[in-house]
Write a structure and sequence with these properties.
Length: about 300
């Protein structure tokens, strides 16, 4: 079966690709650059979706937390467009193709939920309208994946994806290894997370199970805070986490608006994923996830 992955060259996409290939799927990536087993976004807009595509997944998006990029209007536009334009292009291509794929999985984020000290969000929570740049982005990103066809659509609201070879862990690993890691801000903020292996398995689960539809929360079932994560990660590394990253430093590195993503967090549970779909996590707790991150069992 043929699978098409927008942004399949990235952190999540590379791991997903190997898992899919191991299961016998034929994978083509959509990228900005041509390459092996790769087509470009221009190819899609010119020629539409390749024949006999079974599933389409979109993971494309400019890296929001890249500290090398200044948080200005240009960068914010790039963040928006890289997600919305690619998703819209795929939705339109699905619309106009005669032989439709069976399912469209569109990535999204827990940034759609407003950080709140009490509220626990599940897939059925009424989220209301946007409250900051990131939530506005996520609203528009999800909206862009709509088609007026009956192709099954899955929106995956992901928490922070933890994997050794990319994302947040790759950034913080060296400092934790040298005992200069620590909590961010007060550390009391919630930290919605999922292991890289589980997010990939969840995507494959969504492709393979026809009853999976609409919004699903791509987070682990265990709610933790930033301090809990920090302590567990340091313990797995057998290091001390003694140097907190103060709020003002976060503001200096990332800017105030973007810093919110690190200094605030939401309590999110995967109610539908667990109760309705009975999906089984390989890393349901932060203890087992951190052990894996340190031992690096999955080298995908
Ligand atoms: P990556 O940063 O690894 O990027 C994924 C791919 O997006 C890249 O390989 C690249 O493909 C493509 N891309 C980057 N910039 C642009 C751009 N300006 N225009 C078009 N395409 C671009 O992402 P992840 O794998 O970490 O995440 C995948 C998706 O999941 C992203 O949309 C992200 O926002 C979302 N997500 C990720 C989380 C995480 O913790 N990692 C958490 C929640 C959501 P190429 O260079 O081949 O074109």
């Amino acid at each position: 079966r043929k699978i098409l992955i927008g942004g399949g060259t990235g952190f999540i996409g590379s791991a997903l690709r190997s898992l899919l290939k191991n299961q016998g799927y034929i994978v083509t990536v959509i990228s900005r650059k041509p390459g092996n087993e790769t087509i470009t976004w221009e190819d899609i807009s010119k020629n539409g979706i390749p024949e006999n595509t079974h599933a389409i997944i979109n993971l494309a998006g400019e890296n929001v937390l890249n500290p090398a990029k200044r948080w200005n209007d240009d960068f914010k536009q790039k963040i928006m467009e890289s997600r919305i334009n690619t998703t819209t292009l795929l939705a339109n291509a699905i619309q106009s193709t005669t032989k439709k794929p069976k399912v469209f999985v569109s990535m999204s984020g827990v940034g759609i939920y407003k950080p709140d000290p009490e509220k626990i969000y599940d897939e059925y929570t009424n989220i209301g309208s946007s409250f900051d740049f990131i939530s506005e982005l996520v609203h528009k990103w999800e909206e862009a994946s709509k088609t007026s066809t009956n192709v099954r659509r899955v929106i995956l609201r992901s928490g922070v994806v933890l994997g050794r070879n990319g994302g947040m862990i790759k950034e913080i690993y060296p400092s934790f290894n040298f005992c200069i890691g620590g909590r961010i801000g007060s550390g009391k903020q919630y930290f919605p997370w999922i292991h890289q292996y589980d997010i990939c398995k969840l995507i494959i689960f969504a492709i393979e199970n026809e009853n999976v539809t609409g919004i699903i929360n791509g987070v682990s079932p265990q709610i933790i805070t930033n301090v809990q994560f920090t302590k567990t990660f340091a313990k797995a590394l057998r290091r001390f986490a003694i140097l907190p990253l103060p709020k003002f430093v976060v503001h200096l590195i990332f800017g105030r608006e973007r810093g919110v993503m690190l200094l605030e967090g939401q309590q999110v549970i995967p109610k539908k994923v667990v109760e309705e779909y009975n999906f089984k996590y390989l890393y349901p707790t932060i203890d087992v996830a951190c052990e894996e991150l340190v031992r690096n069992k999955h080298t995908t």
